Amino acid sequence: METLPSYAEDIDGGESPSISMLSELAAARKITIVGGSIPEKASGKVFNTCCVIGPDGQILAKHRKLHLFEIDIPGDIKLKESDTFTGGQKTTIVDTDVGRIGIGICHDIRFPELAMLYRSKGAHLICYPSAFNMSTGELLWDLMQKSRAVDNQLFVATCSPARDPNANSDYMIWGHSSLIGPFGEVLAAAGHEEATVIGEIDLSTIQSTRHAILELRI
């Protein structure tokens, strides 16, 4: 964590190699990209930031992680993000060519109120770029994704880095990126290794799921 500020990129100033690469890819493929998260430097602070980039390569939205992660399990893991990052102050919802998307980053998924707010604003999908560790991943990763999807009857997509068992780090990644449907069904999922997975979203199932629950047909 202490080395992250040295890798922080100036997104607003146009000095972000990561965002430039994603913008070029989005424009070349004519696709919308929810671009994971990177350390962003701005106003003398460092944020954990995700950018959504449209098919023209332009930034549609920028989300700064709202809820910073703090954990201290004796003999297991200790981490305090607030030593490095500043928390964001704004929720992020964006209209794209594939629907209305709400954005959260990692620990943001633990807060149901954020997902409820995104539902109230018409989100079809909530994306959570994340890097859960081995302890919280095994206990909570699947549960949190399915809970946010079922609570709000919408789609939830998560993207995690792959796990590198040879990494010289005391923070080992859980992995297991997923796409979850409105009933909590797993539509696509990766393991802990590097992989590409594809899942289809049928937005009409959002309303049919909500009607089924409202009319007690399940």
What does it look like?
It holds the Pfam family CN_hydrolase. Residues 1-203 form the CN hydrolase domain. Keywords: Hydrolase. With 218 residues, the chain is of the alpha+beta class. It has a single domain, classed as Carbon-nitrogen hydrolase (Nitrilase/N-carbamoyl-D-aminoacid amidohydrolase, 4-Layer Sandwich). The chain is 24% helix and 26% strand. The strands form 3 sheets. It has a 6-stranded mixed sheet with strand order 7-8-9-10-11-12, covered by helices on one side. Strands 1, 2, 3 and 4 form a 4-stranded antiparallel sheet that branches. Strands 5-6 form a two-stranded antiparallel ribbon.
Return the CATH architecture: 4-Layer Sandwich
- Relative helix content: 10-25%
> Which regions contain 5 or more consecutive residues with pLDDT less than 50?
none
Shape: globular
Pfam families: CN_hydrolase
InterPro entries: C-N_Hydrolase, C-N_Hydrolase_sf, Nit1/2_C-N_Hydrolase
Keywords: Hydrolase
Organism: Miscanthus lutarioriparius
Brief write-up:
By secondary structure, the chain is an alpha+beta fold.
SSE blueprint:
Blueprint (H helix, E strand, L loop, with lengths): L16 H13 L3 E2 L3 E5 L2 E9 L5 E6 L5 E4 L3 E4 L11 E5 L2 E5 L8 H9 L4 E5 L4 H19 L2 E5 L18 E3 L5 E4 L14 H11 L4
Helix pairs in contact: 2-3
Pfam family, one: CN_hydrolase
GO biological process, one term: oxaloacetate metabolic process
Protein name: CN hydrolase domain-containing protein
What would the keywords be for this entry?
single chain, 218 residues, alpha+beta, Nitrilase/N-carbamoyl-D-aminoacid amidohydrolase, 6-stranded mixed sheet, 4-stranded antiparallel sheet, 4 helices, globular
